[in-house]
Design brief:
The structure holds 2 protein chains of 2 kinds. By secondary structure, chain A is of the alpha+beta class. Chain A has 5 helices and 3 strands; from the N terminus they run αβββαααα. Chain A has a single domain, classed as Sufe protein. Chain: A (Alpha-Beta Complex), CATH 3.90.1010. Chain A has a 3-stranded antiparallel beta sheet with strand order 1-2-3. The two termini of chain A are 27 Å apart. By secondary structure, chain B is α/β, with parallel strands linked by helices. Chain B has 2 domains: 242 residues, 3-Layer(aba) Sandwich (Aspartate Aminotransferase, domain 2); 131 residues, Aspartate Aminotransferase, domain 1, CATH 3.90.1150. Chain B contains 13 helices and 12 strands. The chains are: A alpha+beta, B alpha/beta. Chains A and B meet through helix 1, strand 2, strand 3 and helix 2 of A and helix 9, helix 11 and helix 13 of B.
Chain lengths: 139, 398
């Protein structure tokens, strides 16, 4: 069996939503260069809906694929729906990841949450309870 | 285009070795320990192979060649034998490098658990250990120095003759893991004062699952595998004569053509190094001159090695990476970290290992595609953006 599923390879080779949103409403960055992966998510939010999302990722094949898949899964969704997105849902959508790559999906979930925390902090809107005190996982 | 540039991982089976292998499977497939004709004809093949291997490394006597399942077994047996035998003489200290193959490092850890003391020397920034560091580490308790002939990841060639002379002078045994060097660099165990040496057939166009432990007569070996009188009683198990004969043929072919091959491979290597040096914020890891003929190891800042490797694989280029994501652990290459390469740079490393079958055209193709994938992944790397805008500090010079 290949290391990665066809879906992972597709999202690695043709990543969706790569880039930067100028004047984004929320930006989240998680990970660090010592651990070998950094994900940065940019959100454009209108009426509590994520109307656009872009990412930049430094990391391995699965880090890039999970970022790409996560952006697809939240684009056009409400914040509430985006907050329900678990790392497992990202893994499932990619038809699975090798065990030692699961942390990449955790990073993707954290990057979205970090961007939403930034959004609430910037706007001063009341933060949903699930985001209060959010800390990204240790890599 | 398909470009195989991962010869340090494994090599293709040479035509010569394959012919010998098939000939043995068809015609010399007896058990060399059997007394009947079939067995004895196979025994002759085995004797020939042993003599050939001995000649290739200038061993004094063919009976100093022990066939094993590969380099790892040879390393295990060498270290465990010397340690346990010498312990009876009150010597419980071993010296090695922190950049050795895990067949050495894990065996050393096991010996530490048994109560032995092990010194892990770090090489200099060029990946080469200073001989005086080895000299300073030797105590009256030291029984063995094990230093690899050349490093598998970044190619640096260690000062083997100098360490051999030092060990001889100090009365300490000297083992070298020559898995990457055999058939690629000249080896003379007598002139270099090497007491024990490991090699592996599939690194020089022989088959997998076959290797050699050279052990100078007078040094006592202990068994890692018990159960029979094969290999002078030191390695049980029915002998893999087809594999051994094919290995001997491949080793001889490599040694006979070494000069010509190396002239070609070194030119390709240096062409690749030059072509990759154009990439800003990249560095060659390991000594630029005292390195294996085919080895090119580079770090590229702001990108991660596994994504580069997969990107190159899509173009048909096979190479490897020292990034954590290609290892079984969460840490990047112990070799690059052990020689002082910053962790961020170790994550972004690629190793190409060329051989005499590679061409200039292939090397130019690799150069073009590496530029392309490094640029691509840098363009999507937030780490690269932060290096560029000064939010993070570069660890590699432009």
């Amino acid at each position: 069996m290949a290391l990665y599923s066809d879906k992972v390879m597709d999202h690695f080779e043709n990543p969706r939503n790569v880039g930067v949103i100028e004047n984004a409403d929320g930006v989240g960055e998680v990970g660090n260069p010592v651990c070998g992966d950094i994900m940065k998510m940019y959100l454009k939010i209108e009426n509590d809906t994520i109307v656009d999302v872009k990412f930049k990722t430094f990391g391995c094949g699965s880090a890039i694929a999970t970022s790409s898949m996560a952006t697809e899964l939240i684009k056009g969704k409400t914040i509430e729906e985006a907050l329900d997105l678990t790392n497992k849902a990202v893994v499932d959508a990619l038809d699975g990841l090798p065990a030692r790559k699961i942390h990449c999906s955790v990073l993707a979930e954290d990057a979205i949450k970090a961007a939403l925390v930034d959004y609430y902090t910037r706007t001063g809107k009341k933060m949903p309870e699930s985001l209060v005190g959010f800390e990204p996982h240790e890599d | 285009m398909k470009v195989y540039a991962d010869n340090a991982a494994t090599t293709y089976l040479s035509k010569t070795a394959k012919e010998v292998l098939l000939d043995c499977l068809d015609n010399y497939n007896g058990n060399p320990n059997s007394l009947h004709t079939d067995g004895q004809l196979t025994q002759e093949k085995l004797d020939e192979a042993r003599a050939t291997v001995a000649a290739c490394i200038n061993a004094k006597n063919p009976n100093e060649i022990y066939f094993t399942s590969g380099g790892s077994e040879a390393d295990n047996q060498a270290l465990i034998s010397v340690a346990r035998v010498q312990k009876e003489k009150g010597k419980n200290h071993l010296i090695t490098l922190n950049i050795e193959h895990h067949a050495i490092l894990h065996t050393m850890r096991k010996l530490e658990l048994e109560g032995f003391e092990v010194t892990y020397l770090a090489p200099q920034a060029n990946g080469i250990v200073a001989v005086e560091d080895v000299a300073n580490a030797i105590t009256d308790k030291t029984c063995l120095v094990s230093v690899m002939f050349a490093n598998n990841e970044m190619g640096a060639i260690q000062p083997i003759p100098e360490i051999g002379a030092l060990c001889k002078e100090k009365g300490v045994l000297f083992h070298t893991d020559a898995v990457q060097a055999a058939a690629h660099l000249p080896i003379d165990v007598q002139a270099m004062n090497i007491d024990m040496l490991s090699m592996s057939a599939h690194k020089f166009h022989g088959p997998k699952g076959v290797g050699v432990l050279y052990c100078r007569n007078g040094i006592r070996l202990l068994n890692v595998i018990e159960g029979g009188a094969q290999e002078r009683g030191k390695r049980a198990g029915t002998i893999n004569v087809p594999g051994i004969a094919a290995m001997a043929a491949a080793l001889k072919e490599g040694c006979d053509n070494m000069e010509e091959n190396n002239r070609k491979v070194i030119a390709l290597r240096d062409r690749l190094i030059e072509g990759l040096s154009d990439i800003p914020y990249s560095q060659l890891n390991g000594d630029p001159v005292k390195r294996l003929p085919g080895n090119v190891n580079f770090s590229f800042e702001g990108v991660e090695g596994e994504s580069l490797l997969l990107g190159l694989d899509n173009y048909g280029i096979c190479c490897s990476s020292g990034s954590a994501c290609t290892s079984e652990s969460l840490d990047p290459s112990h070799v690059l970290l052990g020689m002082g390469v910053p962790i961020e740079a170790a994550h972004g490393s690629l190793r190409f290992s060329l051989n005499e079958e590679n061409t200039e055209e292939e090397v130019d193709f690799i150069i073009e595609k590496v530029h392309k994938v490094v640029n691509l992944f840098r363009s999507m790397s937030p780490f690269w953006d932060e290096l560029q805008n000064g939010e993070r500090e570069h660890c590699i010079a432009e």
